[in-house]
Amino acid sequence: MALRIRDDDGADSVVTYVNPSKELNAGLWSLFAGATVLLGLRVWVKLTRRHGLWYDDYILIASWFVLMANDALISYEYSHGYVTQNGATWDDKMHILINISSCGTLIGQAWSKTAFGVTLLKLTNRWQQYFIWFCIITMNAYMVAKCVLQWAKICGKKDYEVWYRLDVCLNSKFRDDFKEGGQIYNIIMDFIFAVFPWLITWKLDMRKNEKIGLCVTMSLGMIVAIETAVRVSWKDEGNKRDPYYYWRNGVSNVWYSSEVAGTIMVQCIPVLRPFLRDVHHSLTSKRLPSTADDNTRRSRTWASKNRVSAAFSKRSSKPPELSINQDAMEGLNFGYNETKISAGIELRRISEDHDEEKRLEWIKQ
């Protein structure tokens, strides 16, 4: 999808344009690789934990296929004549490919956001579900309308009155405003979907740090919304026909692809939280002291208690109770609880996350 389709392919034929194919392919396929890795991990986590896939997973996988096909099509365009030189013009085949890739971008944007909307349907009450359904339906309806307009003719422009376009004549300003409105609506949907996890989570009986962590991971779509807003603002500056005309078009394609790939990636991160927690526990367990060290520690503690008991027994038949200044010990127990006992101090391990059973399973696999 270009910043702006040219009105006259043969204009400024003396300009030598910069070909951005290398930068374009690096950007497109790096984003695709990131989306592929995270989506693969999401599917693997769900299947290995025997939760299975749900509708949001299938929609996300469909979005991934659209992203792959669209990236391949854009790469093909830039390697087969998209960047013209010496007054050459685009043929009908290139125009058709550009329209197809533009529609592919629109479909990827709508479907990737729809997947997150479907995820939220599992976590919301009835009136919230009605609102989310409204967002999903209107967003996809807008996408279909923009795809239709992409193939429509433009009144008064001969370049758009060709055989492969629909027999519908649109005003140029209306067409541009409608397409820009679709981008703004996508930004609004990203912000709305990013806010919903906070509304859902904050009143639940969970620890505050758990709430914040869960909300942040489920609201990463805010990053995509900000990125989209920056891209729309940059796009509105236009694209003058200088040597970097096609280079800016290539950057624009990477921006559009990043919206789809980014939306896929940020939806995979919350599902990977159990997997990342298991990895963290696995790495932590390797640093814990061995059994032999534990036995040695217990032996030394027992010996210490016996020595203290013997010292007290010489003075009194009833040893005094030892009090512990909890403020002084704050932050110094290194994973142990202090327990007052007669004639000594016993150290025992803190149970590992005793609130684990209270954690809410947000993403029902």
Automatic annotation (TrEMBL):
Location in the cell: Membrane
Keyword presence, Lipid metabolism: no
Keywords: Membrane, Transmembrane, Transmembrane helix
Family: Belongs to the SAT4 family.
Organism: Lophiotrema nucula
Membrane-protein topology: Multi-pass membrane protein
Primary location recorded for the protein, binned into one broad class: membrane
Keyword Cytoplasm in annotation: no
GO cellular component term of the entry, any: membrane
Listed Pfam families: Fung_rhodopsin
Domain of life, source organism: Eukaryota
Rhodopsin domain ranges (all copies): 41-277
InterPro entries (alphabetical): Rhodopsin_dom_fungi, SAT4-like
Protein's recorded name: Rhodopsin domain-containing protein
TM region(s), chain numbering: 26-45, 57-76, 96-118, 130-152, 183-200, 212-234, 254-276
